[in-house]
């Protein structure tokens, strides 16, 4: 699947990793956004007066709006997974409960997330 350049690559890659749960990219995007708002006290620190959490979520709910690292903790918590991101063979980011199933993503060219498939699906 070519997901490059459409702003949905993070959510498409996670949907691929969670394919056994029958979730699509849109559902993952909206669920993560709602989770952040419901638990805003956990996430507000990452925002400023220039862009508060409500403004961020208002934009992030839209297809084509590029996902970023501020969503990772909410995705981990909402879906009970651990996110591991690789760039050229090394892990550059690892977040979530150490005992949770791993969602493994590649980050290519600092602009595109892809799913790294393993034998098991969660």
What does this structure look like?
Helix content is 35%, strand content 19%. A hairpin with a 2-residue loop joins strand 1 and strand 2. It contains five helices and four strands, in the order αααααββββ. The protein is globular, with a radius of gyration of 14 Å. With 122 residues, the chain is of the alpha+beta class. Helix 1 (9-17) packs across helix 2 (25-38) and helix 2 (25-38) crosses helix 5. It has a single domain (9-115), classed as Cathepsin B, Chain A (Alpha-Beta Complex). This is OTU domain-containing protein. One of its GO terms (molecular function) is cysteine-type deubiquitinase activity.
Low-confidence stretches: none
Tell me the distance between the termini: 19 Å
Please work out how many helical segments DSSP would assign: 5
* Helix share, percent: 25-40%
By DSSP, the count of extended strands is 4
For the record, what CATH class applies? Alpha Beta
Query: What structural class do helix, strand and pairing data support?
Result: alpha+beta
Output the radius of gyration.
14 Å
Q: What would you say the CATH architecture is? A: Alpha-Beta Complex
Overall number of domains: 1
Question: In percent terms, what proportion of residues is strand?
Answer: 15-25%
What does the main sheet amount to?
Answer: 4 strands, mixed
| Chain-averaged pLDDT | 89
Strand order of the largest sheet: 2-1-3-4
The sequence of SSEs as H and E is HHHHHEEEE
């Amino acid at each position: 699947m070519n997901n490059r350049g459409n702003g949905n690559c993070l959510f498409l890659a996670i949907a691929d990793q969670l394919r056994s749960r029958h979730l699509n990219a849109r559902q993952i995007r909206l669920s993560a956004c709602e989770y952040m708002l419901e638990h805003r006290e956990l996430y507000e620190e990452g925002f400023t007066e220039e862009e508060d959490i409500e403004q961020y979520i208002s934009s992030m709910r839209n297809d084509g709006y590029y996902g970023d690292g501020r969503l990772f903790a909410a995705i981990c918590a909402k879906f009970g997974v651990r996110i591991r991101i690789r760039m050229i063979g090394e892990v550059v980011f690892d977040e979530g409960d150490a005992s949770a199933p791993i969602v493994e993503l590649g980050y290519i060219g600092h602009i595109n997330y892809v799913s790294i498939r393993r034998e098991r699906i969660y």
